[in-house]
Amino acid sequence: MAACALRRGLLSTVSKYNNKHTHRILSVVDSSVGFEVNRPRLQCRACGLPGAVQPRRFMSSRNRPEGKILETVGVFEAVKQHGKYETGQLFLHSVFGYRGIVLFPWHARLYDRDITPPMSDSKPEPPGAHGSKEVKGKTHTYYQVLIDTRDCPHISQRSQTEAVTFLANHDDSRALYAIPGLDYVSHEDILPYNSTEQAPIQHELFERFLTHNPAKSPPFTARDTLKAWQEKNHPWLELSDVHRETTENIRVTVIPFYMGMREAQNSHVYWWRYCIRLENMGNEVVQLRERHWRIFSLSGTLETVRGRGVVGREPVLSKEQPAFQYSSHVSLQAPSGHMWGTFRIERTDGTHFDVRIPPFSLESNKDDKAPPAGYTF
């Protein structure tokens, strides 16, 4: 269903019959507003009650001069409420709608300032752990994934497809490089499906990292190159902490990553990247207008940064296009620090309100001796 929404002007209908009850998913997309992706909400047309999750065939369209054509992509699988998805699992992103495949999982600590009682499906941190945090961390599964390059043009206005960056392996302390089509996806954003294609995902690393094995489920297994790449780059890829907070129906999620240390002008410069996702959980259309950051360094300095928008954009968050995700970077001349701030949001009537960015730590507790391996296999 979500892959359908990546194509312009698409009306996709998915039907399944089960015990005389018909389950149907409709996704209507207008080319003027991009694409709309929602989780499947199955309802029995006979009794009006939610039905069980069933395998569902879904379609995608390809724009051709003679018109729009629907093509079969695969069959939906049941969403996992417990456990984790395995390497090689095909999925659709429930928010951004792209096709992807799971490389390997990460077990992160989620610091959710919106939740006070314990979450039933999470394990709390031991007493005293991360005492500087405002809330206790709960374990939460994320996945390192590859994005299908055919879908990147359709999501580029909503999510950066070159967000995973590394420090270059040379003396230029500010040089960065990115691996296009690499992303981190939360467990609840995975809509799993299966396909009979031997190469259902188009990405230059797909065949380097994965091999088709029809005897397995899912039928794609990790090559030695993926295992070696994961091991070499573990300190620079690792997702450890996730911070989340909601203000007036605008939820902000922050994930910081330590990138390493470089020497510049006889001093050490420590680098981090941070990924931010804004989601409009309500029905009101709003627009991000300004950012206001405060960056505290262990050296004792406090820097204030104000500016228009983020990464050169002022995204509109609506019910049809509820989310925007981007990555940026920060460097300190100290091995640790903190960041926090606000986003200035504008309503359609011209009034404004500030959305809190949850405070998060910048830690450099990784081994700096081994540089990132990047594309080295």
TrEMBL record:
Its main location: mitochondrion. Signal peptide: none annotated. Keywords: DNA damage, DNA repair, Mitochondrion, Nucleus, Phosphoprotein, Transit peptide. The keyword ATP-binding does not apply. This is Polymerase delta-interacting protein 2. NCBIfam families: PRK05461.1 (NF003967). Interacts with PCNA and POLD2. Interacts with SSBP1. Interacts with PRIMPOL; leading to enhance DNA polymerase activity of PRIMPOL. Interacts with POLH. Interacts with POLD1; leading to stimulate DNA polymerase activity of POLD1. Pfam families: DUF525 (PF04379), YccV-like (PF08755). It comes from the Eukaryota. It is found in: Mitochondrion matrix; Nucleus. Involved in DNA damage tolerance by regulating translesion synthesis (TLS) of templates carrying DNA damage lesions such as 8oxoG and abasic sites. May act by stimulating activity of DNA polymerases involved in TLS, such as PRIMPOL and polymerase delta (POLD1). GO terms for cellular component: mitochondrial nucleoid; nucleus. It comes from Dicentrarchus labrax (European seabass). The keyword Nucleus applies. GO terms for biological process: DNA repair; error-free translesion synthesis.
